[in-house]
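Check this.
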Amino acid sequence: MQDSFGRNINYMRISLTDRCNYACYYCKPDISKHLCHSDILTYEQLLDICRCAITLGITRFKITGGEPTLRKGYIDFIRRLKELDGVEQVTLTTNGSLFSFTDLDELKKIGLDCINFSIDTLDESEYLKICKKNNLKKVLSNLEYAYQIGIFVKVNCVVDNLFTFSRFESMLELIKDKKIALRYIELMPLKYSDRNTKMNELIECVQKNYTLNAYNNKLGNGPAHYYTIPEFKGYIGFIEALHNKFCGDCNRIRLSSVGRLKLCLFHSDGVDLKPYLNDLEELEKVMKEWIFKKPKEHHFEEEHSSTVMNEIGG
């Protein structure tokens, strides 16, 4: 469906849980405060919301968290979501630390369209400092296996005020001989994060040291600008929420694990869908009304948002 600004809203990000087994310094989930399991939507309730979303023209879904693989039964939920009439694409964003190869085999079997692995560095000591976990080898093993069995793989790398060009160059190892999309994502000033990033500085350094060829084909639903580098098989992408606003083309809405429909990461407005779950006709009506009112743009360049990343999944 279209919102009031004529944007085609066809993509929903679904948070399965606010919990995460990591504690990345730029996200800072409050691990002492978690939702009770009774607070979060059941999988059947989530599927009901997805059915209404499909009726409204939303056919692409991203499964997020917190860390979505922490929630028991997430693979079966993805299977059921993939089976809904009208679904075009289902993808998953994860830190990749909790997979078994059997899990990945099952995700391939049910047709998961892409896995986004969150990996901010290939240096083990730096990885430990960032996320407080020493899981890098396992994550890279899972990424390698997912790629080898034919699941399309992307890597999300956050660019904050501590990011270095040397880290960028080391990360290129991931795309040297693999058709992986490596995306550098500018840190947005959410509740706990720093406004300062090195995205502009990074892009300038990359342009000086590498030949970038624009890659104009779509690699998913996100706003990344993709490029190829000679002699590298994969792609690099830049997502610049602050310095290259893409609000005019925004096609997404977000659903929290407790059923709140959020229209923009910056804005606090949204609607609690829980009261309407017993009447799907009314649920669809409410969703349509609120999606139509999606804000024109964010204002991250002016102020922080109260959004907490682990509650909404990016």
